[in-house]
Specification:
The structure is a homotetramer of 474-residue chains. The first copy, chain A, has 474 residues and is α+β, with helices and mostly antiparallel strands. The first copy, chain A, has 20 helices and 9 strands. In chain A, the strands form 2 sheets. Chain A has a 7-stranded mixed beta sheet with strand order 1-2-3-4-5-9-8. In chain A, strands 6-7 form a two-stranded antiparallel sheet. The interface between C and D is large, with 63 and 63 residues.
């Protein structure tokens, strides 16, 4: 590529210097110094320069192919049998194992020794994933970067082992900087202001995070829970209910939860914050730990369920509408079509599809009661189809569904207009879904899903999905 | 081996079951269950059974040789050049890297995910090192176990990275269980009782430990320091001085240190407590961190030095005395010999050597003033020779010397009768040595020692060592 | 008054019940129960009802006058001299001391035993002060309430002793609820939003609070400090400066303060939050402790000063303008008057005064540069006069001045347009004043002020004040 | 007394200086300085000197008698009626209340403001109680010191209010200095060594302390509890049982308590550590709080009981034996007497009493099985008599009994040879007693005892006591 900037140059020199000491008898402290320089220079780089540097690492500090070749030549012959031979083979394998390990494996290990080093590697992997994405067209670079990524991911998965993760509950008494981060990381249902935030960590709510011993001020996963007495079918209550104490309650008594009103936990938001930890499962562990904590606090808690978004339903639906417009398949019954024509004020079926596609790019339709009623049945049906029947490599196409099903949850209920926020309408026409956790069955259901890729769903969901298939078949 | 006990059998079955799920699509939580069983059964086993089980792991769950062979056969041909070829090679190397990784690498990673898992692996490695030692005669088993040990050590060195270690100061206000452990782990100068312990964490003393985020109640390294105004030449003051407040001091004022009396830190005991972490350097990092803390607390601190034991000096000396008795070399000057004959009440030179050897197995000689005076010069000289000239693979034979020299310390002063405890007399005729840390020079001295294996010592030590060589040459 | 509500009735009955047990042999736990009821019912009362209840307490549970009278009758005769007589007198005094203690002294002590009891008493005293204010016209009630107030204040001053107060630094890492309170209590320079708050506890800022062991989540006094290199003459820099790191600084390095830029601490806001602690000095102790902390952190800190508001200057000025309008005194030189006539567009002097009074009720004038320039000298002069010469019972009339002067500070500098906020302009035409703390002189200056009520001020302030007196004399 | 030492002189001068500033306008900080000096000098004094100083305080800084006299002369006349008159009276009472307050009341308040001041006052009161005891013969001094003591006790009782006390559980993880204090303060069943201490805070044990916010490292009250499944009748199990895990338990699993074995809490030691807090009840509050904690931890806990010593039973018994020897009353039945003659190897009844008295000064008798059997019935009976019938000012003579009965406990069971330690045998022939807490009845039983001084005891105890009375009547 073009001549690198001074900083890239400095970063490269620092890393070359560090690597050159690898096999000399230099003290580890000296190598630490060099690695600290590498990190410093790297952190100064811009996006493009980082890509350059990562490509440098992935290509220059990959496996020494020659060394591998030579070792393969030296493979001990298997003519003499017995222990001696076996021992020889083990030692040869040992050497091969060392040789085939790319140099950057050693580099990553060294960086991890620095204070803040593991966090640096997490952030570096985020850059690496970006680079990988932008360079995917170059077949060689793609392979080299991919190898480096899998090396780094494996190392990270060793460090981000559950034993080093701490579950923490976040309340209004938690440090302000943590609450600020919890607020900023919330992507599913954005936090509007501090009052909103205070409510989300207040009464009838729980907010748990995972932190890592290496980076105690950084929430890795954030899980928001609503405590109630029935499986929520809408966000409205969750984000707005304030359960003000009734008049005859004492103003002296601190406001507090009434445990008798609580037997259900609704996971209404789960966010993994570190892109650099992609592919390393933490969310499932957090849910597991949190269920444990909740049951300890509320021994009578019996129902656990998510209230989850369907991020790409409208996108999928739009594509479907186009195909329907082209006559490739039918998605409404004729009664529905006639109703839609009426409410949309159009004569032709094909313009129904077109109108609907446009309609779903705006939020206005949700105010038209009759249209909403007309759409409810077909959209719920199509959504069930999308969630239950659409697959990717055998598993649920919808990533949220796939996450919960892998955890052993059941696809429980599809909820009409559960999220009327602009985001909710734009993504899924406001539809949300409950994935319900039956604790005793999670283990076996998870296995069923993973092994046979069969989705376990409630009768209601299955009926809806079947109805959709019926209509589409016709 | 003989038919294994029920528990070994159960442990084997559990591990087999876990491994069988490796490539199936089982949820990680299910594998966790199996691994928990493995740990449970293993922890129930006796020493011999553990060896059996570890051998089972090292042999059955090693690298799949066939798979490696096959992959090597499939090596892509290098006839076509270019990116495509390179990418192919990278992918092939990836597969080989996977294949050559022993199964137990995956097992260890899985165990690390359990709560308490990393500590389990540390303890398991201790068993592994024992097994390795007892089975070293079987060439195949030795190779298999060694390969497993290096795999485990590499993983442990990833987890016991400095970023996950916490320096903690131990005082009389620390939790009692920690103080008990600090007391029990102290091997260099055993703690006599709780009063003794209280003094060692009290005024003019510092005690620092490293703990790991995974096992916060377990001191991994313990470092004891004495704060004073000169480089200590004896343990007497360190273990006994109590600096009682003078009479005119207020009884209201809490006893406290007078910072003006402190400009020197004596590291008089450093202990690594986990045998399972053998080969993973932590002590040097702790010293570095502690120096940092001390300089923050005492900005005027200028001198840092150890006061260290010489664990095997008497053992080495005894061998030397035998050789001298046989006339293979001379170790005393003729004047010294004549004095020794007199004080030992013997006529012949050869019986001097024999008498001395017996003498050093007891502690009584230290009470005979004249004998002590006569021995001082020759023993100091020989000790300097032992420390400065005797090498193992190029480095100092004495492991304590090697540790401090690697850290960049200087061999500063040899101290006569510095440790009059039975242990001190038995190990090194009571001689101790200061390794002094000149902070600005540590880096370069460490490098010098590691690269050229040259020992940096003070003039006094070098003169003593030269004198010894002189005498021995004759 | 009108028949009390059910709750007042309940509160009265509870307190009567508790008092009735006072001399019976009831266990303390039983009395605790009753007192808890008293607190509960009281907390339910409205403002008017609380007044009723407090009057009930102050009158019904005051000193038993009859008992006092009787004891006075029983005073031992002083005819016999000697020890026996003295002992008798001491015992009689003891009894009188008991008798003259009002019953509510015992009630308050009992309430303090409850969890949350001391906080309850603080809040109750706030109500008591309100009641005292509204009932001041009734000579008997006023006396009764005042006696109860002084009893309560004395008890509170015992509990709010410095030994039970904790200094805490508030940062962005502090619990969110504390930061919220710090924000809400800030009265001098209101916090606009969370970004503003974050800055006030951020770089080059310190925020310290006093909490009490009884109510650890309640800041009693809040002190805000700005760290800089000169004595600030305006709020602008304090509330807005953000010292963004320059471009060439590392993005890796955490933003941090440069200690070399810090040698001055500006106390720019001090707030006592509990009205119920009126008359119990805490602020001076907090300043003293904070100076101590700052000097420990910044050994080279040499300058300590407040930047303080003058809350009632405009109010005082308006009264002055009226008197000037009436011709009772002159406050401007004739040159100034002529300039003012010009800038205010009026012909007569008397309308100048009127115009100015109206002007100072709005904030617009501060934008008219020429007017501002014309006003600067006379207003600064008058302000110096107000601060330096105007007295109340011998001490400075301005309460902020009185607070700092009692602490031993010097009236250092008057600053023109130092606070351009609406509040600052409305209160003091934007003028602020520095009270400077010369640590070595505080003790003696405090004594001078307290004993001779002489205000210690810088030459500049004194000159301004003299100039004002000069003009007004004419 | 003789001329006081220089330190006493210095202490007196410091206190005179401080008091002289009382009504001047000196800043509080200046008075703090003086008071700090007072404390410093006082702390340097010996026992005798402290007495001198306390007498100085009690006499010189007592109430100003003249001022009181004068005020009494000025009592407003009651001829005019109405509000004005009432207000006048209130103000006069106010002045009298101020005047009659001794100067040392103000001194104590000032000292409390110092850091460590409250603890200083606690310790000073201990000295004061000692002085009071040694000077009790001087009628005037006794009265003066007593007045000062009651002033100080009242102040201390305000500070040692429950709201400022913290319950803390002590475990082996608690700070070592706290455990050391818990060990040293244990007076009832002295701690033998650290292993013993570890057990007392270990499994099936609880140890709770009260600390005060002013002195967080000082246990004020220590309460030891044994967790079991029946009301313990002996110390043996409590101090020795180790409940080692059975063989088939996992060595991996941390030793832990089996909650199903726990439904009873035995309070087997409660110690108030601060003599200076005599007369301020804390122990009952600690028991109440601890019961609360235990029920939260063990919802199925149903039985609460003490296992208490009877410190002065043998002393009382000896006096009784003397009277019996003199023939003043009979304490054994004739059968018992004849048995005792036999076992003690004596012919005459009177020498039986003498022998027994001697016997109970040693511990040997407890090894003679037959004698022990013979003594059991009469000693149990006499002990019941001692506890149930012997009174002091209407309440139980035995102070331990009085403490528990005031708390509302029931005298439940007398246990033969429950404490075989030398101390236990010497104090009470090894007899111990259970005071049982029926939580629902505590309140009413406490009231019954306090109001009617009736002791509530189980039928067994009452029968024993009656039997004793029967025998003694004859």
């Amino acid at each position: 590529p073009s001549s690198p900037s001074g900083l890239v140059q400095a970063a490269r020199e620092a890393i070359n210097k560090a690597v050159s000491k690898r096999d000399s008898k230099t003290s580890v402290l000296a190598i630490d110094e060099d690695m600290r320089d590498v990190c410093y220079y790297y952190s100064q780089l811009g996006t493009e320069e980082r890509s350059d540097f990562l490509i440098h690492m992935a290509t220059v500090f990959s496996t020494n192919h020659m060394a591998v070749e030579q070792l393969i030549q030296q493979k001990p012959q298997v003519d003499i049998d017995g222990n001696k031979m076996e021992a020889q083979r083990l030692r040869w394998e040992d050497r091969l194992r060392q040789a085939i390990q790319p140099t950057y494996h050693w580099i990553f290990s060294q960086i991890s020794r620095l204070s803040g080093g593991v966090k640096f590697l997490v952030d570096m992997r985020q850059d690496l994933l970006t680079t990988l994405y932008t360079k995917s067209s170059d077949i060689f670079l793609a392979a080299a970067l991919k190898t480096m990524d899998s090396t780094l991911r494996e190392l990270l998965s060793l460090w981000f082992t559950v034993g080093l993760l701490n579950v923490q509950r976040i309340t209004w008494e938690s440090p302000c900087n943590m609450l600020q981060k919890v607020s900023e990381y919330e992507a599913v249902h954005p936090v509007r202001n501090w009052t909103d935030l205070k409510r989300r960590v207040g009464l009838y709510r729980r907010c748990f995070i995972f932190t890592h011993s290496c980076m105690p001020n950084e929430p890795l996963v954030v899980l928001h829970i609503f405590l109630t007495s029935e499986i929520s079918c809408s966000m409205a209550k969750i984000l707005k209910t304030s359960r003000t104490p009734s008049l005859d309650e004492s103003s002296m008594k601190k406001d507090c939860e009434d445990p008798s009103l609580i037997n259900t936990a609704i996971f209404y938001s789960i966010t993994s914050t570190q892109k650099g930890l992609k592919g390393i499962e933490l969310g499932n562990y957090l849910i597991k730990r949190v269920v444990h904590e909740l049951r300890a606090e509320f021994p009578h808690m019996t129902q656990f369920s998510s209230l989850s978004p369907i991020p790409l339903f409208v996108k999928w639906l739009s594509a479907l509408l186009i195909r329907a417009e082209r006559g490739e398949l039918s998605i409404f019954t004729s009664d529905e079509l006639s109703d839609l024509r009426e409410h949309l004020g159009t004569e032709s079926d094909s313009s129904v599809y077109e109108r609907l596609r446009k309609l779903f790019t705006t939020n206005g339709w949700v105010e038209e009661e009759e249209l909403v009623n007309t759409l409810q049945m077909p959209l719920m049906r199509l959504c069930a189809h999308y969630l239950y029947n659409e697959k990717l490599r055998g598993y649920a196409l919808d990533s949220v569904a796939n996450f919960h099903l892998k955890n052993g949850a059941m696809m429980w209920r599809i909820n009409w207009l559960a999220d009327r926020s602009p985001r909710g309408l734009a993504n899924s026409c406001g539809i949300m879904v409950n994935y319900r956790y039956f604790l005793e069955d999670c283990e076996s259901q998870s296995r069923t899903y993973l092994e046979s890729s069969r989705i376990i769903a409630s009768d209601t969901v299955v009926s809806l999905a079947r109805a959709a298939a019926e209509v589409m078949k016709v």
